[in-house]
Specification:
Elements lengths: L6 E4 L5 E4 L8 E10 L5 E9 L3 E6 L3 E5 L3 E6 L6 E9 L2 E6 L2 E7 L9 E6 L11 E10 L5 H9 L14
Antiparallel strand pairs: 1-12, 2-11, 3-8, 3-12, 4-5, 4-11, 5-6, 6-7, 8-9, 9-10
């Protein structure tokens, strides 16, 4: 959805259903998004997909940012002060890095290497079953890439929010 404005998720029932078609495939993933959260619920999902592998990127009840595959990895305490933050998740193989405002925020090791071949259910703002783990935040400029951004790509995207990371000369994207 391109609207030029942020989308507001009410934490009650709002989410986007991407469907069963994978928007990316392979063993690399980058998700870049601007989020403004004022609260943290029991577990609020930024996105969740179900396929050959399942990845969930979420806030937990205490503001902790988490990444899940078959187990949960704590990334760090995420701010919920009502300001906009630029978040980037990169996954390459079994290594995940989360960045906030262009700076590395935390890392995680997945239980298995990422392997996106099929997706049966992909949701933004809730879990794949839309069973009540709804995001209570505003979200803007969400992008998914089938490449793992470098630190330079992340910094460029943060400093140039109106540009795509591939507009930076010398990038491998």
């Amino acid at each position: 959805i391109y609207s030029g404005r942020g989308l507001e998720f009410d934490g009650v029932a709002d989410y986007l259903d991407v469907g069963a078609s994978p928007i990316i495939t392979g063993d690399k993933l980058t998700c870049s998004v601007w989020i403004k959260s004022t609260t943290a619920g029991s577990r609020e999902y930024i996105f969740d997909y179900l396929g050959a592998t399942r990845i969930i990127w979420a806030y937990s009840w205490d503001g902790i940012m988490k990444l899940y595959d078959t187990s949960e990895e704590t990334i760090g305490t995420a701010p919920t002060d009502g300001s906009w933050y630029h978040w980037v998740l990169t996954i390459e193989g079994d290594s995940a890095i989360v960045y906030m405002n262009g700076v590395q925020f935390g890392t995680a090791t997945l239980n298995a290497a990422l392997n996106i071949t099929t997706i049966t259910n992909f949701k933004i703002g809730t879990d794949y079953a839309a069973s009540g783990k709804f995001l209570d935040a505003s979200m803007s400029n969400m992008q998914f890439w089938d490449a793992a951004w470098t630190q330079a790509d992340v910094t460029y995207a943060y400093l140039n929010p109106e540009q795509l990371a591939l507009n930076r000369g010398g990038t491998s994207l």
